[in-house]
Amino acid sequence: MRRPFVAGNWKMHGSRAENAQLLDGLVQGLPAQASADIAVCPPFVYLWETARVLKSSAIGVGAQSVCAESIGAFTGEVAASMLKDVGCTYVIVGHSERRAIYREDDALVARKFLASQSQGLIPILCVGETLEEREQGHTTEVVSRQLAAVLDVAGISALDTAVVAYEPVWAIGTGKTATPEQAQEVHAHIRGEVARRDAKIAAELRIVYGGSVKAANAREIFAKPDVDGGLIGGASLKADEFLKICAAAQAH
Ligand code: 13P
Predict the structure, then answer these.
(1) What is the number of the ligand 1 atom nearest to the C-alpha of 231?
(2) Centre of ligand 1 from the C-alpha of residue 72, in Å
(3) In this structure, what CATH number is given to the domain that contains residue 186?
(4) Which of 40, 54, 105, 42 is nearest to 78 (CA)?
(5) Is 220 an annotated catalytic residue?
(6) Which domain range does residue 86 map to?
(7) Which stretches of the chain score pLDDT less than 50?
(8) Is 181 a catalytic residue?
(9) List 95, 97, 104, 241, catalytic entry
């Protein structure tokens, strides 16, 4: 049985005061015996404080990105070892906003994935197609390519300690969520791609969905057999809403 995973990607939101309130709400509201792995991914500058606040809670901390290099003259970048040092467990790699706005290509995403695992961090590898790619019927081809770029350099066993997030670009921040059937179709495809290489790793891999997940639609999406939780943007900024989504994941 795969343990559900729900992570909040705060993106570039928050302040010390807002974060304190949000984290307090999460710590107070999360049942002690949560049957899902829960994490929050604040902006870099808040990671240390967030990890400190969550230290004795069951909520993990993740970064939203990482440098592919390990140390040196890379102004503005943050190394995986530093994320580990301040208490991160997870790191998002290949988010579509990084791919589209900051031109991160498949090869760079693969290097970031490797850099994360080299420090014992669990990468949350994001894959997903644009609206244009979906309309042209290229969805499965795109996610296969994005996945293969990582597996070709990291090897299939790297997925033993990773999470894959399917995030259709057209569903991110748009309020247009994929239907549970659309999500299931792509999740099953991803699991199938992994199974071609290793059936056991495929069966144990957590594949979460991201894109306009809210308390109101989480349950039906998470009910699908190959959907193991969610990567939540906007709805992770409100404690009540995020807790309801976490509860929906635990119901399965
Ligand atoms: P929204 O939940 O705001 O659509 O964002 C999804 C996302 O990009 C999570 O990484």
Answers:
(1) 9
(2) 32
(3) 3.20.20.70
(4) 42
(5) no
(6) 5-27+35-250
(7) none
(8) no
(9) 95
